[in-house]
């Protein structure tokens, strides 16, 4: 698995934690060991430009996902084919504001957003209530499993 991290902000990011989180999700979703993705951390101005360009929505958002090879989850018996999963773009300052409102740490919020985005890259969505329940239950399980493996639950 190749997970490239790039931080274009002044926010301090523990890159290893995000690589480990993504790997945990990759393994749980039975992705091919050669699957690739990137995570880019950007400031609010850069995120706002992407938000306007791709979704025609004003202001910065917390995270955006850009799928590449349209991979879907595999199973233990039939792992997903190898490919380029896509790109995740996170805005730490927006995530930190959301974390404060939700009553947890900014790192927990960004790890949650990482799980959330990988699920989007794998075709999950939350536009309909039934989809929302599936996706949000899965992202919660993935995040809690990862945090527990790190002794942070």
From TrEMBL:
UniProt-recorded Gene Ontology molecular function terms: metalloendopeptidase activity; RNA endonuclease activity; zinc ion binding
Gene3D superfamilies for the chain: Metalloproteases ('zincins'), catalytic domain (3.40.390.30)
Cofactor: Zn(2+)
Domain of life: Bacteria
Cofactor note: Binds 1 zinc ion.
EC number(s) per entry: 3.1.-.-
Entries under InterPro entries matching the protein: MetalPrtase_cat_dom_sf_prd, YbeY, YbeY_CS
Predominant place of localization: cytoplasm
Keywords: Cytoplasm, Endonuclease, Hydrolase, Metal-binding, Nuclease, Ribosome biogenesis, rRNA processing, Zinc
One record GO biological process: rRNA processing
GO annotation, cellular component aspect: cytoplasm
Annotated family: Belongs to the endoribonuclease YbeY family.
Name of the protein this chain belongs to: Endoribonuclease YbeY
Organism in which the protein naturally occurs: Brachybacterium alimentarium
Organism taxonomic ancestry: Bacteria, Bacillati, Actinomycetota, Actinomycetes, Micrococcales
């Amino acid at each position: 698995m190749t997970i490239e991290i790039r931080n274009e902000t002044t926010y301090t990011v523990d890159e290893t934690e995000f690589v480990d989180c993504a790997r945990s999700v990759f393994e749980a979703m039975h992705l091919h060991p050669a699957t690739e993705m990137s995570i880019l951390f950007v400031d609010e101005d850069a995120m706002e430009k992407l938000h306007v360009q791709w979704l025609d929505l004003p202001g910065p958002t917390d995270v955006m996902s850009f799928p590449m090879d349209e991979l879907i989850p595999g199973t233990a018996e039939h792992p997903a084919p190898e490919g380029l999963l896509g790109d995740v773009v996170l805005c730490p300052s927006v995530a930190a504001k959301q974390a404060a409102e939700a009553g947890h740490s900014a790192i927990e919020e960004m790890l949650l957003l990482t799980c959330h985005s990988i699920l989007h890259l794998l075709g999950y969505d939350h536009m309909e209530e039934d989809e929302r329940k599936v996706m949000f239950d899965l992202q919660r399980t993935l995040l809690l499993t990862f945090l527990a493996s790190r002794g942070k639950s």
